[in-house]
Amino acid sequence: MTAPDRTTVAIVGGGPAGLMLAHLLRARGVDSVVLESRPRERVESRQRAGILEHGTVDALREVGADARMVESGMPHDGFAFHVHGERIHVDMQALTGRHVMIWAQTEVVKDLVALRLEQGEPLLFSAEVLAVDKVDGPLSRDGEALVRYRYDGAEHELRADVVVGVDGFHGVARRAIPDDAVRTYERVYPFSWLGILADAPPSSDELVYARHERGFALLSMRSPSVTRAYIQVPNDTDPSSWSDEAIWDELEVRTALGDGSFRLNRGPVTDKSVTPMRSFVAEPMRHGRLFLAGDAAHIVPPTGAKGLNLAVADVRVLAGAISSWVADGSQELLDAYSDTALRRVWRGEHFSWTMTTMLHRDPDADPFDDQLALSHLRLVAQSEAYRTAIAENYRGVPLGM
Predict the structure, then answer these.
(1) Angle, alpha carbons 377-87-196 (nearest 5°)
(2) Active site residues
């Protein structure tokens, strides 16, 4: 593809949020260029999220990237907590009238990439963004913002009216904002997740979140024949230090029910990795002509299944704001973007923190914290009102909430 040098919106990052933004803008008649530093094969194979809120499903439907999801995705009406051998069920559909969709981020990205290329819209893989410049100052339609990038062996410049950074926590975009113009909040948790993909049918029709004296465990899925599962491990754990059999044995112990009724389906492990747990927010999510979204602005621990969904919510808000500005010059929605997005971001941060602290055990923590977590889980078991609140947050709150 020819290296473009002018666009209305330069999108730095071709993950699910950047691709979704490009499609939402196209649907509103706004042109964009997507620059992604990694090769296509890497983007389409990276194992990440797998639970889509109803708002994310709606966005895929809006841009026409939902056909395979409708055919092969797995709607989920609820999930379960296994707490020291007892089961607590949260029926989202009954409590809120909504469900979530199990559809892997890898599949979401494949569909968004294929659609973008089919439409012939600019999407450059292996395009390394070197710098984001000239984003200070007011918005204009003069293409004053500048993205410098390396592509196909040469350096190029892309001029744009607006730059959107969706290039992740370690990306270039956020570094273009002066340190004194952004405030950051961060929490690093004293544990990680050891995750596996396995050729094994899911052990449960719904996700299982387990709290055990030996630590957290999660049983999820990617398809009717592929299991995704995690166990809590110390930070800096080497995944190769755990044999496949040892991981399955630990999952068996941590997810077991006291009456012996729960059975774990085992199978060959095809992927193994360790995910650190952290919370991070940078605010505001805008500096002049530069707007941040997704992991470039915020990270949540995966316990609440919010990462991908918060990123898509960001770009849904941003697409409407940009298109309004392009259509009639109104900056009202763009000026409100950061505050609007951050309200939902902090709701997601709080929910993810709640799920994380409720379900994990820090071996070095005060026993007082363990008792608080167990009391919290008893409240979930005993109160329909509280289960409803958990279900509402899990399935996704409205934009701007």
Answers:
(1) 95
(2) 76, 209, 302, 306, 394
